[in-house]
Amino acid sequence: MSKLARVFSGIQPTGVPQLGNYLGSIKNWVAMQNSGQYGELFYSTVDLHALTVPRDPCTLRQETMEMAAAIVACGVDPKRSVLFRQSAVPAHTQLLWTLGCITPVGWLNRMTQWKSKLQSQNEAANLNAQAAQGLLTGLLTYPVLMAADILLYRATHIPVGEDQVQHLEFARDLALHFNKTYGQKL
Fold first, then answer.
1. CA–CA distance, 80 with 30 (Å, rounded to integer)
2. β-bridge mates for residue 85, sequence order
3. From the centroid of its chain, how far is CA 160?
4. 82-85 and 40-45 as β-strands: parallel, antiparallel, unpaired?
5. What angle do the packed helices 137-152 and 165-182 form, to 10 degrees?
6. Largest Cα–Cα distance of the chain, in whole Å?
7. Which of 71, 97, 90 lies closest to 9, judged by CA?
8. Are 6 and 39 in contact (CB under 8 A)?
9. Which phi and psi (to 5°) does residue 46 adopt?
């Protein structure tokens, strides 16, 4: 594997990691870091992604710090990997806005997680026309923010769970759409 390989991966701040956080992400981050196969590793507590549901700001800040501390305690070495809080880098939201301005809403409506939440809301409300009324825009645009995260770091490797594969494909499609729209490579 090329030393030029760039990894980006994020984890939502839930405070002290659960076993699923460790086995699904953190353990793999440490293994990737220690393998010596990657040129740059960018690991983030993705606190902006955590805002897709209402969160108490004080709790979110505390859980973000706890998650970062736990990531380091589990073996991610800040001298060998870049560990950061997503909201501390304004370029994430700046690229989100730029990409969001060219993202067809139809693409977002096809996302499985959005459709699942919409269906749940519909079943709860039992109203087709008003099913989306209670859903928050952050959930709809979540894939655009994830695309911004990936594209900002020009990541070549993005370790994700099965539930995020569709969002990876969306990021690829959105990058191609940007390149075609603006005539430059993102």
1. 10
2. 45
3. 9
4. parallel
5. 70
6. 54
7. 71
8. yes
9. -90, 75
Cα 174 from Cα 141, distance rounded (Å): 12
CA distances from 96 to 57, 101, 102, 156, 175 (A): 21, 8, 10, 19, 12
116-135 pLDDT, tens digit each: 877 776 665 554 545 556 77
In one letter, which amino acid is 167?
H
Q: Tell me, what DSSP letter sits at residue 42? A: E
Question: CA 104 to CA 21: how far, in whole Å?
Answer: 32
Q: Which residues pair with 8 in a beta bridge?
A: 42
The answer to pTM > 0.85 is yes
**Which range scores top for mean pLDDT: 96-100, 111-115, 134-138?**
96-100
Contacts (Cβ under 8 Å, ≥6 apart) of 61: none
DSSP per-residue letters across 33-97? HHH---SEEEEEE-TTGGGGS---HHHHHHHHHHHHHHHHHTT--TTTSEEEEGGG-THHHHHHH
Residue 114's identity, in one-letter code, is: W
Residues 122, 139: Cα–Cα separation, whole Å = 16
